[in-house]
Amino acid sequence: MTAAPLKSAAPLSLLGLTPPEITSLMAELGEPAFRAKQVIDWTFAKRAVSIEAMSNLSKGLRQTLTEKFVTRTMTIATVTGSKDTTRKFLLKLHDGRFVETVLIPANPALYGEASDRHTLCVSSQVGCAYDCKFCASGLAGFTRNLTTSEIVEQIVQVEAYSGERMDNLVFMGMGEPLSNYSNVIKAIEILNAEWGIGIGARHMTVSTSGLAPQIKRLADFPLQIRLAISLHGASDEVRNKIMPVNEKYNLDELFEALSYWRSKRKQHITFEYILIKDVNDGLDQAHRLAKRAKGLDAKVNLIPYNTVEGLPWVRPSEPHQDEFRDVLLNAGVKATLRREKGHDIAAACGQLRLRQETELGIIDSPIPEKRITINAGA
């Protein structure tokens, strides 16, 4: 695969720093302690787009900070969709790569007609190494982890563009969040903090394809974030066909980790289950799924397959979707069937990014011959 020349050095962004780190920085520069509070306020509360805009800092300090730090590292390349529907943001990173962030408006059926709830689907990596067979995110393989500041900046960029406050975050965009554990966790702390972005922990959900050791590690994380599992198969036989991660962490190991999570948390786990015709939509899978969900008192979110250019899968008929859901409901499982938002704007994760990077010559083809080896490291 031929890659176009890209910038490599990652700029240091203040959006990725915590108050102790900023305080330490000010001390190293010989600045009084109150300067740290000013920098924190400008960075997070006032959302300064540049260090130069921090007008109550001395000119010398602004110049010194500008030599090492920035407040923005990405730009919005395109926005697809309209204000009253799902909007998809393609964000260009400092090295010329792209990630996607999806803004999902409130569902009145769930939150009431007057709800102004805004959910943002956040990316954690450029590409993905996990090669789920139905997903566009990993079609060009894995490029790199996003930094803490790049994760935080997705929210900052979308709020600035839309003029709307994000009050619900789901780490379900491009990449496997638990494979970028350290950066994701630090970003969550910044996003949650009162001095930071100020989003409640219970309004943040981390989704994983099933990295069992990292699920246990996350269970011990003090903030009360929520967990979603990209399950997509209720038996190892089915899951192995479409999710290579299952060969490393099979369902027994995954559910042992989920039991540990439930022993530490009160929040319900959510199983995300994409329905793919003649692959995982058999009613035998529905019955198995119901048994597994009841064992953990988990909720199930059924999602008819989103068409991905270049992949062969199709969604089941709507009557069959309903039949699959009804098996769960009749078994006493909380289940929803989500008629998708954003299908008409190619909101399956990775599609806009693949198209853009192919057109720019960053990648030759969206479907490489080789895949990266699965690695569950932090």
The CATH homologous superfamily of the largest domain is called: Aldolase class I
How many DSSP E strands?
Answer: 14
Q: Which word captures the global form?
A: elongated
CATH classification, class level of the largest domain:
Alpha Beta
Count every helix, treating DSSP H or I runs of 4 or more residues as helices.
13
Overall pLDDT metric = 87
**pLDDT < 50 stretches:** 1-7, 108-114, 367-378
Widest sheet: strand ordering: 3-4-5-6-9-10-11-12-13-14
- The radius of gyration computed from the alpha-carbon positions, rounded to a whole number of angstroms, is 21 Å
Largest sheet: 10 strands, mixed
CATH architecture of the largest domain: Alpha-Beta Barrel
Secondary-structure element sequence?
Answer: EHHHEEEEHEEEHEHEHEHHHEHEHEH
Q: Estimate the helix proportion, in percent.
A: 25-40%
Structural overview:
Its EC number is 2.1.1.192. Specifically methylates position 2 of adenine 2503 in 23S rRNA and position 2 of adenine 37 in tRNAs. Its cofactor is [4Fe-4S] cluster. Keywords: 4Fe-4S, Cytoplasm, Disulfide bond, Iron, Iron-sulfur, Metal-binding, Methyltransferase, rRNA processing, S-adenosyl-L-methionine, Transferase, tRNA processing. It comes from Prosthecobacter algae. The protein is α/β, with parallel strands linked by helices and 378 residues long. The chain has 2 domains: 55 residues, DNA polymerase, domain 1 (Orthogonal Bundle), CATH 1.10.150; 285 residues, Aldolase class I (TIM Barrel). The chain contains 13 helices and 14 strands. The strands form 3 sheets. The chain has a 10-stranded mixed sheet, sandwiched between helices. Strands 1-2 form a two-stranded parallel sheet. Helix 11 runs parallel beside helix 12. The longest helix is centred in the middle third of the chain and has 15 residues. The radius of gyration is 21 Å and the shape is elongated.
